[in-house]
Structure formats: C-alpha cells, structure tokens
Amino acid sequence: MEFTLISLLNGVTYGLLLFMLSSGLTLIFSMMGILNFAHASFYMLGAYFAYQISVYLGFWPALLFAPLLVGLVGALVERYGMRKVHKFGHVAELLFTFGLSFLIEEVVHLVWGLSAVDYRVPHFLDGTLFTLYTTAFPIYKGFMMLVSVGMLAALYAALTRTRIGLIIQAAISKPEMVEALGHNVPRIFMLVFGGGTALAGLAGVIGGNAFVTEPGMAAAVGNIVFVIVVVGGLGSLPGAFIASLLIGVIQTFSVAIDYSVADFARQIGFHVQVTPTLARLSISQLAPMLPYLLMVGILIFRPRGLMGARES
Asked: So what CATH class is 2-301?
C-alpha cells in the first residue's frame, strides 16, 4: 500500500509537470497548426534563466521573471522567424523549429557551459511536507503540484472567461472573421506562441531544480512531450492533461517494478524450458519504452488520440 500511494503521488507530480510543458505545445498547435520541435528547448531556457535570476535576486523573482523572459524570446521568434517561414508551409516550419532547438542548445553551451549548473531547491521549500507510513513526501513536490494546478486553473479561466481568451478561441476556427472585426490576428498568434513558450519556461523553473539543469535536459523530455501530444490528441488540452497524468503514473510505477513477463508466466503456472530474452527483462528495464508503446497503440486503434480535436 505504501509503495502504491507514494508512487501514485510521485506519478501525479511528474504528470502535472509534463502537462505544464505539453500544454504550451498543444496551445500553439491548436491555434497555429505548428508542431514546435524547439518547445523543450524553451523549457531548458526557463531553467537556466531561473538559475541566473535566483543567483542575484532569489527564487521568487526567478519564478516570476524567468517565464516572462522565455515568453518574450518565444514572441520574438514568432514575429521575426516563424511568421516569415509560415508562408513556405509546414515542412519549412518544422525545419525552422528543428534548427532553432540546436541553436538554443549551442547558446546554452556558450553562456553556461557543458556541465550542470548549481540550481537547487530553495531552502525554505526543502523539507518534508508529510510522512506516509515510512516515506517522506517533500515540500517541493507539493509546491510543484500547487503551481501546476494553479497554472491549469489560470489557463482554463483565461481561455473561457476573458475577452482575449474568447478572441483566441474564435481565431482558431475563424481567423478571417476575427480580423474583419478589427482584431490583429498576427499579433494574437505572436501572443499565443509567446504564451505557449512561457508555459514551457514555467515548467523549467520548477522542474530544473527538482531534477538537473544541464544542456541535455531538453532532449530528456522533448520526445515525451510529443508522445503526450499524440496520445492526448493533437490540439486537445484536456487530452494533453489526461495523457500527461497517464504517462507520469506509468513511468513512475514501471521504474520501481522489478518483475518480468517470465515471472508473471510462472505465477500463472506457465513454464517454458527456454525463456526469450525479452521476456526476462524486468518492467523497470522496459520503462523507457512504455510511453512509446502506448503511442503506437493509440496510433493503431485511435489515430486522433484520446480526445483529438483534429485529424492527426
């Protein structure tokens, strides 16, 4: 019971962080039709900006200003790069964002070096929130959950309860009509792209010190983010939320289970003389593959994803 509850809490925490990261990518795709391959690089920028700001001003200013700086960078990228590339089609957009991810990584190398930086959990959030049986649950993980849920509530309220949110939703399906009503649709696109990258930056702020802030952190989560977007359904925020929690829980449980297919076969009374190598691998060894197996299954049986808003 202790293992189940603690793994569930850790999985939900990780899943909420993944949703904070994937929600920005989903928002950008749902409105602009752009799959931003550099999205995880903005997550990395958020962590490095937060580290640099926290050195001089502390954690709370970093939590506020780092996502804003990342959002500003994203808005400039859309205004002076993506907007010019857009007229050449989706392939040009993908190549542009693919190259941008390498450019951001090289900038990080030049400014902060090749090694991990000393971006730590602030001392006032470093401790035990509660103890479940014999396992301590850290304060910072509770803080991560609080920020993630707060971001989800703020995003939902902004999109459904504010004037700019209604304009954004209208611009998704009827951009010509929105422009005819006097709204600057290109500027809305720039704000959406900047807002999406700011969400990735916020994930970097709270995830960078919980894990490790180093130049490979974008590559570590980049693939998983695209798996979440595909599993949840391209352009669907509710789908991304469900997929993030699902993958977070699956990965958290699987890395701790030292049990193989062969062991399960023996439990049900099925014995073989020669056990295939794959069947002898434990679930913890197969854990990195599980999200991709889930994505393949979704693409086979439900190509639009769990709650797909458009054809994939």
From this structure: mainly alpha
